Amino acid sequence: MEEIAIVILNWNGKQLMEKFLPSITSYSENAQIIIADNHSTDDSIEFLQKEYPQITIVRNQTNGGFAKGYNDALKHINAKYYLLLNNDVEVTKNWLKPLIEKMKDKKIAGCQPKILSYNEKHKFEYAGASGGFLDSNYYPFCRGRIFDTVEEDKGQYDYDLEVFWTSGACMLIRSNIFWEAGGFDEDFFAHMEEIDLCWRVKKLGYSFYAVSGSKVYHVGGGTLNYQSTRKVYLNFRNNLMMLIKNHQGLLFPKLFYRLCLDGIAGVNFLIKGQFNFVFAIIKAHFWNYRNLLATLKKRKVIQQKTVTPKINTLYRGNIIWDYFVKKNKYFSRLNKRLFE
């Protein structure tokens, strides 16, 4: 068994691999590097076979998105740790050592490095930043990024911290715990599947950490632009599905409250004339209503496996109220007593 397998999911990403594989191959000593190809139709495979014959290629038969793509590929990989890495990430010297060091604690299921923007290297990157959290209504935010406010990295978060979720852009996770939790939920296709996974893993009694001593640079938005209608749809759909599956307590009052909050978001898009986003939210909700019974079955399985119902990194505040009303747009300004 390999100690660590760096698994990079690729779909028609030859140009990205040309740009980012050099840093990965240079700075990932003693790690097996694997490309999980999600049924690419460009010449990704030919490029890899010619330029990187030392890299193992696992070919998926279909493009099932991020969640299924990784599940399909990881079934064929035997390693103690999976390092799931986007194909638009530049790594830095000694990036793996602090992550592996953190995993010496057996109660830690996974961790992530500090994720900075490739294009604006002085800033955190939108998708993951310095570790992720959920508020009391299960809206995600990061240490270093809340909604559209991305902070500059001034060393303010240069300390390791237990977080609620780690970014799928660069996530180290124990392989046995990944499968104990059931892997990624393939119904997500893409977006928030890593948050759902972390939530389920935490219910098993494990924790996740952001490790400041490791640093990578992520382009972000390479598959779907952050302002795309498809991304808005997936984010609202998947967040609601995640709530139904994992919420601890009375479900339908919480679900109704979220319906109201999402309605307010829809009105905001309507005022801005972003009608396509309004329809994306409506479509996301109707998907969940149609698939409610199937999601409730998943909820039952999760509840049966739950060891730790109380999650100590859930933010008990309302991030929407904090951000838009109280104008607390930085993680450092949030009330730390509200983190359970």
Note the main attributes of this structure.
single chain; 340 residues; 2 domains; 39% helix; 20% strand
What do you see in this structure?
The protein is of the alpha/beta class and 340 residues long. It has two domains: 2-218, Alpha-Beta Complex (Spore Coat Polysaccharide Biosynthesis Protein SpsA, Chain A); 225-307. It is 39% helix and 20% strand. It has eleven helices and 13 strands. The strands form three sheets. Strands 1, 2, 3, 4, 5, 6, 11, 12 and 13 form a nine-stranded mixed β-sheet that branches. A two-stranded antiparallel ribbon has the order 7-8. A two-stranded antiparallel sheet has the order 9-10. Helix 7 runs antiparallel to helix 8 (251-271) and helix 8 (251-271) packs antiparallel against helix 9 (275-290). The longest helix has 21 residues, at 251-271. It starts with a strand and ends in a 15-residue tail after the last helix.
Provide a quick synopsis of the model.
It is built from eleven helices and 13 strands. With 340 residues, the protein is of the alpha/beta class.
Topology:
Blueprint (H helix, E strand, L loop, with lengths): L1 E9 L3 H14 L4 E6 L6 H8 L4 E4 L5 H10 L4 E7 L3 E3 L4 H7 L5 E10 L14 E3 L5 E3 L2 E2 L2 E2 L10 E3 L6 E5 H6 L12 H11 L3 E12 L10 H18 L4 H21 L3 H16 L1 H14 L13 H7 L15
Parallel strand pairs: 1-2, 1-4, 2-3, 6-13
Antiparallel strand pairs: 4-12, 5-13, 6-12, 7-8, 9-10, 11-13
Helix pairs in contact: 7-8, 7-9, 7-10, 8-9
Oligomer state equals single chain
Distance between the termini: 37 Å
Q: Please describe the biggest sheet, giving its number of strands, its sense, and whether it closes into a barrel.
A: 9 strands, mixed
Total number of helical segments?
11
CATH architecture assignment of the largest domain: Alpha-Beta Complex
| Full CATH superfamily name of the largest domain | Spore Coat Polysaccharide Biosynthesis Protein SpsA, Chain A
Query: Helix- and strand-based class?
Result: alpha/beta
